[in-house]
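Q: I have two molecules that I believe assemble together. Could you output structure tokens for the complex as a whole instead of separate predictions?
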Amino acid sequence: MTETPIKPSDPDSSAIADFGIDTTSRSTSEAVGDYFRRLRGGELGAVPALLGLLLLVIVFTSLSDSFLTLNNIANLFAQGGGQTIIAMGIVPVLLLGEIDLSAGTASGVAASVLALHLTQHGNLLGAMGTTVFYGFVLGAVIAIALCVWMRIWIGAALSAIALLILLIGFAANPWVEILLAITIGTVIGSLTGALVSKIGIPSFVVTLALFIAWYGVVLALVGEGGTIPIRDSKVLFDVANGNLGIIASWVLFIVAGGGYAIVVLFRHFSRLRNGLVAQPTTLIAIKVGAVVVLGAVATYLFTINRSPNPALTTIEGIPWVVPIILVLLIVGTFVLDRTRYGRHVYAVGGNKEAARRAGVKVDKIRMSVFVICSSIAAIGAIVYSSKVGSVDGNAGNGNTLLFAVGAAVIGGTSLFGGRGRMRDAVIGGLVLATVQNGLGLLGYQADTVNIITGLVLLVAAAVDALSRRRAAAAR
Amino acid sequence: MNEPILELRGVNKSFGPVHVLHDVDLTVRPGEVTALVGDNGAGKSTLVKAIAGIHGTDSGEVLFNGKPVHIHNPREAAALGIEVVYQDLALADNLDIVQNMFLGRERVKNGLLDEASMELDARKTLASLSVRTVKSVRTPVSSLSGGQRQTVAIAKAVLWNSKVVLLDEPTAALGVAQTRQVLDLVRRLAEQGLGVVLISHNMNDVFEVADRIAVLYLGRLAADVATKDVTNNQVVELITAGRSGELGLARPEVAAV
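A: Yes, here they are, computed for all two components at once.
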């Protein structure tokens, strides 16, 4: 059986012919059969969540006349937007098998700072009081130092922007405030990440402690029982309550749908050209076609006037939340799937020791996911604060974080690390938003809503655990 | 006899009060399989980790291609062309074969991963090693058998044009047929001109593939002999007692410090 190694002069093609299955692309039926085999083998991905979502929609539609109305669906997006975005932030953390319990209250801190900057016309020193203000400044400086030390340049740059906005005291401007909120998130994430990756405290403990501490900071900023309105700023209010214009909606569809089709098809044909493993063209075409058609239908429906009182008011266009989530989804997926950084995140989540031996800078990766998490959570905070129109002492507290983690898990992201995608958070976020919205329409109160939400999460976690077991047994 | 590719001279290593390696000399030649054997705790793994740059050495010289080198971390070892295939298989289960083979050294084009060239080269490498058991290079490692995983880990070393490959117990957890595959692969590595160090407890494996056998006994190199010059029993004696007839360490009272 010992054969002489293939000489370099051998044409590559003959060597490659050994992997027949790789080069000849499979027929559609084979690919579909293979897909079902993998499903049975425990690689469920987003399928259970999508089925669950479909089931929920059917149930709520049959029980409530107002569930499947355009206005309610748009409303559902806005309601679920905040927690969905925070869930997207948590996905990279979960991919490493870590947890960030503080993302909720950290986002609350970002929202409070945003609200204070808006209402106090940029005078944060006066608004926060000397101690708290210099606490933030010190935090930003430390965050910059930590990011530079760990060579997380984007984190350092964003933290530096936070420091600048804090110190310079720009006049109130919604865009400055949005930037401030996001960069405050970066500062917080840098501190969390360094505690986890450099000091080596388990992330559960670090973020549990910070969860409590940030809640205190929110109270200090907002005042016990206080509420800071932000609905006076049109931009901030529109984030969750506004809609794109009709033309802008169609432009969004063309850019997103067309972009998706071009990227997927281009990649597919370049794989075929290079003789790489590729799915059958028919399947790809069906997939792209389905997404584009669904996108077109959704865009069309959203451009119909959905006001309950069409005579008095007009509500039309795609809600702003949709492009915000879409951008995060696309950028996030791109970074995780197509860049070296993303590959390393999956590698560290799959086998930390293997990644370390392969020369991956594990510490840097571990810190960076917390930076990403808190920064994105701050965007989520802007959305949920905008939805309510104000920031109060409970911003980001309570269930915010747990719902976000729940959304990621329901979508198919594993709590054990290494498995999950950005879209999981979006699908799971939709499931949770549907449960909350539907039960609300049916007149159920918080008690039932929470019980059902908990059960949905339990089912999702059970599916994850069982599919893992199945995958392990199939080996 | 060809020039050694990797040479260790008088390497010492202590962990606190425990002196793990005593003046160890080891020679690895291209195109040869050198088996590194020894009982548990003899210092085999420490020696490998010292070569791989995971542990530093306290004293002694490491020559690579005849030139003295200092290896401080795994990256430097990899840059020289020293690849270690670990016992516990340093593969990430959730990634596929291509992703694992290029882990830490991904090719990037325009800031994005260059999947096409990585996939083609991974496939070429596996084919050049006559690996036929793997169906597709896009199979996740989690669904591979133990032997296939070992194959992927070893093929990684070939892919990177390594000069020296250290294999830590590559057949320890494998069945008969899979052991066969891996041993064939080890032989093929040597035939391709690599210097191979095989750590093993299994004398059958050692006698089957090794050209030379180096025996470690309590942190000392007891013998470094050609496989054809020794018998199975002699090697076992060297492993357990540090000496066998004329071979091995001097009498204990002389060797004692």
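A: One point stands out. The longest helix of chain B spans residues 176-191.
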